[in-house]
Design goal:
By secondary structure, the protein is mostly helical. Strands 1-2 form a two-stranded antiparallel ribbon. A hairpin with a 2-residue loop joins strand 1 and strand 2. Helix 6 runs antiparallel to helix 9.
């Protein structure tokens, strides 16, 4: 009597992960709008605002460029990538059945998510580097007084924006709807967070709400870190809450097929 031998299933190794990350990178590069907008839009905001903001002293040698414009620009980089770009890719993979096919292999659909996050983080770092290079090289911006706090806030804001993006990916039925929902979410968060002229232009109650949403909390916390002031724990709590709520909602509603 013959014995059926079931071959052992080999889980994907490091090489498989690297190949998937490289493929995700190629997909992002081929998406011209998704590649250019998160880099060009923040630079456009920076260049348009830097001239006047750089001449407005705030204190301790810092100007409005350092305290308001740069934190806003860096938050725009995170928002466009995390809330608009990433959900559209995941919605496309679900719609075309890529996630369903991966589920039938030793690979996991979660590998696509991890690879997309890695590529998105790399894209965010490119946007960050470009904005800072222009600000420091052309407009004499100053480095953050508390560099460690600024980096920590940036990382937390990155996670918060991705959490919002995962909720968008979870509820969007198609790639086009993911872009549409992501755009609406980004502009609502940005408008309430002072993207169009600062929080002083937002009506009272809405300004308070916007300050505790991810965009406004990120700008406020980064501004404080830039001048070396104590970061308001409530802003950090707001960002952490966005990460937890976004992760919970996306886990509940995300469909792999």
């Amino acid at each position: 009597m013959s014995t059926l031998v079931v071959p052992a299933v080999r889980r994907p190794g490091v090489r498989s992960w690297l190949v998937l990350v490289a493929c995700e990178g190629k997909m992002v590069v081929r998406d011209t709008a998704g590649l250019v907008v998160p880099i060009v839009l923040p630079l456009l905001i920076l260049v348009m605002s830097a001239g006047s903001a750089g001449d407005q002293p705030v204190g301790n040698g810092y100007t409005a460029l350092d305290v308001f414009v740069l934190p806003l620009v860096l938050t725009v980089v995170l928002g466009t990538i995390g809330v608009i770009n990433m959900p559209s890719f995941l919605a496309y993979y679900r719609r075309t059945g890529i996630l369903r096919r991966l589920a039938a292999t030793p690979a996991s659909p979660a590998m696509v998510l991890v690879a997309q996050v890695v590529v998105s983080v790399a894209q965010a770092m490119i946007g960050l580097t470009g904005a800072l290079a222009v600000a420091f090289g052309l407009f004499d911006a100053r480095v953050p007084a508390d560099l460690g706090a600024a980096v920590g806030v940036y990382a937390l804001a990155l996670a918060a924006m991705y959490a919002v993006g995962m909720v968008v990916a979870a509820v969007a039925p198609t790639p086009n709807s993911a872009v549409a929902i992501g755009l609406i979410a980004f502009f609502v968060l940005g408008a309430l967070g002072g993207m169009f002229g600062g929080l002083s232009t937002v009506p009272g109650v809405l300004a308070t709400v916007g300050e505790w949403l991810p965009f406004g909390a990120a700008v406020a916390a980064m501004s404080a870190a830039w001048v070396g002031a104590a970061v308001d724990p409530l802003h950090l709590l707001a960002l952490a809450a966005a990460v937890m709520v976004g992760a919970t909602l996306s886990a509940l509603f995300f469909r792999w097929t």
